[in-house]
Amino acid sequence: MKNIIILIAVLIATACGDVKNESNETESTGENKAEVKLYVLDGGNILVNKLELFSEDTTYQGQSKEFADAFYVISHPKGNLMWDAGLPESLVGMPEPFTDTLGAFTVFRKDSLVNQLKSINLTVEDFKYIALSHSHFDHVGHANALKNATWLVQESEYNFFTNDSAQTQQADIYNMIKDLKNVKKLNGDYDVFGDSTVIIKSMPGHTIGHQVLYLDLGLEQPILLTGDLYHFEENRAQRRVPMFNYDIPETKKSMEKFENFVKRKDANVIIQHSPKDFKRLKLLLKNKK
Q: 29 burial class (0-12, 13-18, 19+ CB within 10 angstroms)?
């Protein structure tokens, strides 16, 4: 099943120092807490024509589903972080959505990174960090544009997607991240700004070094961005795992770890591919203002 993930990435993409500063998840006291802002931007849309790929069995046979594909800007007094990078920007301006040769996915991206950053008065030069939940085609689309930022990536993920073999066998993925030369390799959870407001949480399984993001924005509940630990609400409720995940048992362990963390923090879970959660988070942030 691991090879399926590479095949999917190639089909879509063709269209268009070690660090030991990991966090022990220190508790925030709420005193002298930095003001952190979150912006939700549009990295495209995905119509999954073969939803059966997103379960280990035949549960979704013959079904389809629309996915959102957001990327996020986190503004902190110590610097800006971009979380995920949407679909390939080669899709912007295409007259029609693109469908891969197997008919599994139809993808579309209507707006560029630069244009959307302009709407929040930022440029690609304004980022200290970029972090990807994982290195799949729909999360690395404009990553190279942030080549001057530091890439926060699990060491296992970095090694898997940048080794000599990956540069040829997974060239379409590698080519979308190859310009990220400033790399901070992680081995577990990482407190990005050292004040417990923005924490990368290691949740392997979907890919070898998959991660999610915890955000304390000063709201009633902290936010948890799922990456692709879950793809839609039913996936989460039933703990269903895509058949193409790197390690299905490891994914289920990460799901259990994630849900325990959610309960402990009383966190607001945002499923990144959920159109409903895309709109819900935008409304939540708008109301915060």
A: exposed
Pick from 174, 172, 182: which is nearest to 157 by CA? 174
Higher pLDDT, 136 or 1: 136
Q: Are 205 and 154 in contact (CB under 8 A)?
A: no
Is the full-model pTM beyond 0.85? yes
As a whole number of angstroms, the distance between CA 206 and CA 242 comes to 8
Does CATH place domain 2-16+32-288 in 3.60.15.10? Answer: yes
- Which residue(s) pair with 67 in the sheet? 46
Tokens standing for residue 184:
């901070």
Side-chain half-sphere CA neighbours of 65 within 13 A: 19
CA angle 4, 71, 202 (to 5 degrees): 65
Q: Which residue has the tokens 């404009």?
A: 142
Say if residues 261 and 212 touch (Cβ distance below 8 Å): no
The two most distant CA atoms of the chain are separated, in Å, by 54
Give me the count of residues in the chain: 289
- For the stretch 240-284, pLDDT in tens is 999 999 999 999 999 999 999 999 999 999 999 999 999 999 999
**Exposure class string for 213-244: b at 16+ Cβ within 10 A, else e:** bbbbbeeeebbbbbbbbbbbeebbeeebbbeb
Which 3 state secondary structure label does DSSP give 250?
A: helix
β-partners of residue 200 are 190, 213
